[in-house]
């Protein structure tokens, strides 16, 4: 067996810089556990008592899949952008259009973390600075309202008093409108979120070393409180084991009545697995920085492995504690389902008075900032490397004097300001964005889990710093089809149009790629694109895997469509 030794390219002016080791990437990826805050309420609302099992199963799948990504990342010590870039080169021999699809889908899956995270963080800030007052039947304000409005029920009186006492900023909107299946609005949540986004952009502008240093300290202030939130209720005996039974799906989403293991029940479960994947698989972003590692041969595997262990702990522990304390009715409360009250609920589990509660809420906001920073760092580098490799427009390949891909970052920022206006409107719009972006993420995972065995066949002679056991590579290929089932069956749980909107968004890469490849580059790929594999563009005609990649794609589409047809609510 022959091997090809790849010489590490030294960073030149206008390129990313080798400034970090695996610990730096670990801290950049340490924002991923905070993704649990995005959908913990939504998954509880759709899967009920099964929620903690959904998170556990999804996290185990994500961890096992990551070994495929660790292997293929090691093949490309001079590339950034993550597994989508590394896996795309496996498909390049078989179709010019499938390879950029992988990069594109990974980007529009990760990029909305910026807008969705900022919308949640803004809601937490509004809850802290301008909380909605709580009234009950015994409140004197309610009694006075009933006395002044004879015949009014207690529920109507509470609603009226709450509306009157709610701070005006909570209802203020500069402009709003409905657009197809979603709404958009320029309200207080939007403007607070936009400010947060700009602050994070300014930190990222300093390059990966500065980002990693900042995230190390934020990460410590976030990971430790999340561990406290996960452990303290267990130690203090707050877990009610009755909250984990009966282990059956809900009869209907967001309603407490237990259902059965029928088609409708399985559809809700698959919907939960679909949306959980967007969070639990996310630590694969740790391999976005191979061209910025000082020693990519050893740093790549360590970065994704230890990031995976951290996520395994927190993605299992926090949802378990959350469910054990709140119970089904608590998880179905509106502030939990829409995400605005998750930080308050988690802080309340620890106790310790108002000061501790406020401190923990602020730390949850920091957790969101951390995952937003993770997303901007990873998604901008995906755009950057896609441009360098000839798949996305040339202007995205620019970096500043700190080695930060600033044009890609500006593109991310502008795109997410638009998405933020949608996410700020209501929970329906929020979860529509989340479901559409996750369609892209499932497509990316399908292509890249299969890229593992394609690279083994076509590029088996290339030395690998770390090689996954063959059974794990095969298991990843099987999981690719399981993910296709999640997408086909589960996307509709969050919005009837989510699957088709996701597929349309994925297809937008075709005109983008055609512009770059045929207009800007005259139908040729840059020579350096395949340098890590010791190949030239002319070598792409050798297709050792034959028709297997094509059969894989056809089978994936069939599985997805069958799941969409079979599983209905």
SSE layout and pairing:
Elements: H1 22-29, H2 36-47, H3 51-73, H4 83-91, H5 98-110, H6 113-129, H7 140-148, H8 154-165, E1 173-179, E2 182-187, H9 188-204, H10 208-235, H11 263-280, H12 296-331, H13 334-337, H14 342-350, H15 353-388, H16 406-423, H17 427-458, H18 470-494, H19 498-507, H20 509-520, H21 548-566
Antiparallel strand pairs: 1-2
Helix pairs in contact: 1-10, 1-12, 2-11, 2-12, 3-11, 3-12, 3-17, 3-18, 4-5, 4-17, 5-15, 5-17, 6-9, 6-15, 6-16, 7-8, 9-15, 9-16, 10-12, 10-14, 10-15, 11-17, 11-18, 14-15, 15-16, 17-18, 17-19, 17-21, 18-21
List keywords for this structure.
mainly alpha; single chain; two-stranded antiparallel ribbon; disordered N terminus; 569 residues; 64% helix; 21 helices
Summarize the structure.
With 569 residues, the protein is mostly helical.
Radius of gyration from the alpha-carbon trace, in angstroms: 24 Å
Overall shape: it is: globular
* Structural class determined from secondary elements: mainly alpha
Strand arrangement across the biggest beta sheet: 1-2
**How many DSSP H or I helices?**
21
